[in-house]
Amino acid sequence: MKPSVFIPILALACVLYNADAQPRQTHETEALTDQRAAILAAATAFCTELHREPISGLPSDAQLQRLSPLFTPEIVALIKRAHTLQQEQIRKHPGEKPYWVEGDLFSSCFEGVTSWKLGEVFSAPTVDTTVKVTLSYSGQDQKPVTWTDILVFKQRDQHWQLDDIRMGGEWAFKSGSSLRSILPGGGKEHEDHSSLDERWLVKFTRSGDEVSRITIEPADKSNKPTSIFGHENDESCPMPTWIVWGPNCDMIALRLGEGPRFTRTLIYRLNGKEWQQVTMPDFYPQEKKTMISNGFKERDRLIDAEHWQDSRTLVVKYFGSYEKGDEGDGYHKFVSVRIDADGKGKVIGAVDVPAEE
Question: Is there a single domain that holds both residue 338 and residue 235?
Answer without folding.
Answer: yes
